[in-house]
Amino acid sequence: MTSTGQRPDRSRGSLYEELRDRIASGDLAPGDHLVETTLAKHHGVSRTPIREALRRLEQDGLVEQFERGLRVRLQDLDEILEVYGVRILLEGAVAASAAERYRESDRLRLHSLLERMDNVEPGDVDAMAEANRHFHQAVWAAGHNQTLVDMLNRLSVRVDRYSPSTYSDVGRWPRAAAQHHELYQAIVGRDAEAARTVAGTHMQEARDVRVALWQSAHEAAG
Amino acid sequence: MTSTGQRPDRSRGSLYEELRDRIASGDLAPGDHLVETTLAKHHGVSRTPIREALRRLEQDGLVEQFERGLRVRLQDLDEILEVYGVRILLEGAVAASAAERYRESDRLRLHSLLERMDNVEPGDVDAMAEANRHFHQAVWAAGHNQTLVDMLNRLSVRVDRYSPSTYSDVGRWPRAAAQHHELYQAIVGRDAEAARTVAGTHMQEARDVRVALWQSAHEAAG
DNA sequence: CTGGATACGAGTGTATGCAGTGGTCTTGTG
DNA sequence: CACAAGACCACTGCATACACTCGTATCCAG
What we know:
The structure is a homodimer of 222-residue chains. The first copy, chain A, has 222 residues and is mainly alpha-helical.
């Protein structure tokens, strides 16, 4: 051990993120038991910070109490449908809010992210997922409603698992890109209801793809 | 110390609730510094469980990082409006869902809580708040959507502060009770859109009262 | 009296120790 | 061989010890 005491070599949230990513990537699979000592060893820290990260993951709904300890939460189809149901509503709300509160200063950011999206290498799923995420977050920011953003983040965390992105579905990207353009137009045109509709539809399609992904993953496993 | 080691005399969430209640009641006022050692002494435990509770309060948005440590979060009008904005949407959604998924078995519970509400001693604000909360939670449960319930809980926690309830506003109770009856009728009648509207309107009024409460509290303080 | 350096203290982050609990494995008995 | 009693152990929850940081008070020199 090169250091003890305070000095957070890993700033506070980062251990949480490491664990969250391990869950998202499937390295820690649904149902896996999480033993504090084991995780502590694996991440090179003591149990204390591990415990804090686990508590947070529990709040996020990624991890749950099971018998004596914790395990990675299993996800059923109902849960995915529930989360997307709320997400459809709130993505619509934030898009509408972005349209209502639109200011010129928002446009540059949105537009540059839109371009970046258009220039993604075809087939590069990770780049798609990233460009998509950035664009959506820019819309969230343009909504100027931190409470909505918090809720949307919580919801995203709960379903961004099992696969890097719903864009692993071949063929969805161009369609999604078109919807992003529509959304951009609606926001810039200050048409709140159009923005709500487009964002909602976009999320519904994301839901359908996610459901299909879940189903194929669970057929494979039995 | 009568006991050491595991035995959680206070089951795990309860310390969190104690702190949350101290914030809600104003015992720990907005802006107050929270010192782990002090809280630990006050609640008769060590820093470890206090820290876990604080992390959770931070997630809830009741407490925030400030300089070296934590303080009780200040709340501005915008935040209250944001939270209620989302709450209006989601209370509407859960009411609609309750109407859609209505089953006879839900009716007994809703009805008995409605009666209990009608029999509250006039002027007993705490009893009003409690009856109100129970009725709403029954509606949430009838919606059969745990994700929505989670979100609504998070939102409630963030605004149920400063005063025990929006029912401290004289005259709101009968009106709210009437709305609860309307909501009940809409759910039992399986009229999702009516339920959504009633619940939304109800929340809007709650918002207005909360805003008025906030304003009078902040005029008094300057 | 003022500026800067140093010492101190309050408070957090992390590690570790210790007690209790529930499951499991072992052993003895009918 | 089946089953109950007991020992063991893996693991958690809580307490405490220690390291480090930053603000502040103090003290000395100019």
